[in-house]
Amino acid sequence: MIPLRITELNVDGFRNLRGVKLAPSPGGNVLLGDNGHGKTSVLEAIDYAASLRSFRGATRTQLIGHEAKAAEILMRVAGPVPAREYRLRLARTSREITLDGKRPEHALEYFSGAACVVFHPGDLDLVRGPPELRRRLLDRILVRAVDGYGEALKSYGKALRARNALLRERQPNAKAIQAFDFPLARYGSALVRARTVLAHDLVPAARRALDEVALSPDAIELKYQPRAAGDQVAFTAALAENLPRDLARRLTSLGPHGDDLAITWSGLPARVVASQGQTRALALALRLAELHVLEARTRSVPILLLDDVSSELDRERTARLFKLVGALGAQVFVTTTDPAIAALLPGAKRFTVADGAVTADGG
To answer: What is the pTM of this model?
Structure first.
């Protein structure tokens, strides 16, 4: 497997970052500094360039610094294909994106070339939080690994918004609403099928990851729970049958927008029975499973972004994680306030982050 590597990262006007120019190590990279100075924002800029979404849930305007007119990111990535250049400019009312100087035409081409896996403190909600977060996990993987998935996800969302808008009208027109059943069923059934297969593949990957972080691998089960069938004809029929309910609720109730990925631990819901420590380990295992599945499906090792990992894992599990990362050959970026964490990544390049500026130690 060939690891993906960021060879150059320039960021300006993103959050509080200004004039950031990094030449990262192909192996470990440690971002040191006090809280609130921009360490997480560096990881967020990397992942935003790769995924076009903020893992902290921020909107585009929230990502632009208070005193900046726009935020700009330039990221060059090497991997199994020739080096790619990602360039983004975020303004208050627009977003410009280019891949190798051109507007990207296909989602898979864009998202697979700089695949990142992010582990951050909010990941506890993968286990305990709402279904939306687990759906987002599945979608993050699939847009990078399945040709056409990103386009189907976008088309489904567009049809869903239009159907819901019609349902909310003062006097809804049933015929106009049903005109959107075909695209909903076409794209929605494709999403259900892809997510169901992925959930099945994630089980052995999650068990492998649990073994790697020293928890019982046989205790976890993952199962995708769809509200509608992965068959387009059956999906269409279900929408028609459910129309009276949708009219009463003024909302489309069936479809992958409401599905969940059930996580059970020793046969019971993990959100109920897992301890705080087990929840942290389960969340990490899901992220490592994401990495393992992407590695298997794309034949390249994703970039790993670890935000404040020392606050989420004890020293022993942190050391095990870093040893695993080294064995995989993944490029890793770690944020921490603790200089001792850097010692767990031998040979890592160190950067100091202060007031939105990033400097390489000794450089």
So the answer is: 0.92
